[in-house]
Amino acid sequence: MASRKTQIVDGFTAIRAAQEAARHGRGDPVRPDAKEDVAADTSPPTAKAGSRIGRSVMPSKREVICPACGAPSEVTGMVQLFVCNTCRHRMKLEDVKIPEGEWEEDLEVGGTVIVPTGAVLKGGSITANDVILQGKMEGCEVRATRLMTIGSHAKPDWVRLKSLDLELGYGVNLTPGKPVEGRNLILHGKFSGNAILTGTLTIHADGDFSGQLRAAGLQVEEGGGLRAQLDVNPAYKPEPPKPQRRPPPSKTSKLREPPPPARAQPGTTKKAAPAIKASAAKKAPSAKKAPVNKKAAPKKKAPVNKKSSRAKKAPVNKKKTDPNRPSEDGKGSPS
To answer: pTM of whole model > 0.90?
Structure first.
C-alpha cells in the first residue's frame, strides 16, 4: 500500500507567502479585497491591547559610597535598602528634605539630602550620599560620601563640612586656608587657593579658578577662567579597588563523619566475628598501644654518699693536755 504524502504549512511559511504576494502586487491571497478595505479605512490607527512596546527604558544606575568603609558600589533601579559588599553596612536609600527651621537630629541615608534656604543646622549630624546645601550651618556635622553641592544662598561652615566631590554653585566664593583635597571639583563660582585632586577639575562658563592645582584631569568650558600653576597627570588617578575574594573554608572546619560499621558478610557466623577483628588487629600493629607494666616499680633515686657529701673535719685531739701534768715519757712540759 503506497504511503500518502501530506503537505504541512507552518505559520512562518504562511506569513512569508503573504509578504511575497503583497510585494509583487498580487494582494492578499486569503483576502482578495484587502486593498479595498485599507483604502476605505482612513481612521488613525489605534493601539491594541497586547501590542509590543516601541522602546524599553533601562533602569538607572547610580554610585553609592559606603560611609563606614568608603567602598564604592553600583546600584541599579529602585532599591530601598543598601548593603555594602565589603563591610556589610546597612542603610536606607531614600531622599530626605530637611524641614525649614532649626535641625538638631542625626540622619544617615544613602540618597540625597536637601537643606533648603530656611533651614538652620544647629546640632546633630547629617550623613548622605549627596547633599545639596542651601541653608545655614551653625554647629552640625555634614558629610557627603559622594557629592556636596553648595548653593548660592548657602552659609556653610567649612570646618564641619566633608565631601569627596565638591561643587560650587553660581555666586559662591571659596578661599580656603589650607589645600582642598578630594576627588572632583566642579566650579560654577570662584575658587582661590590650592587644590589636590585625584580626579578632574571642571570649570564651567561662569566659574573661575586661581591658585595651584594638582589633579588627574582638567576640563575648562569656553568662558571659564583659569589662572593657576598646573600639575595635571593621569597617573594621579588611583587604581580601582580589586574585588576581595573570600578565603576558602579550612579543611579542619568540616568534621569528618565516622565510617559506617562494617556489615557481616553473608554466610559468616557470630563466632567468626571475633576472629575477623583479631586478624584486623594483627594487620595493624601500629594501632596498638604500648603495653603498660603495672608491676614496674617507681624509679629509685640514686644513693647519696653521705660520707662524701659531708665535708671532712680536721681530727680533733679529745685528750686535753695539761701543762702542769707530766707527759707519758716522764718529761714535763718545758716551763
So the answer is: no
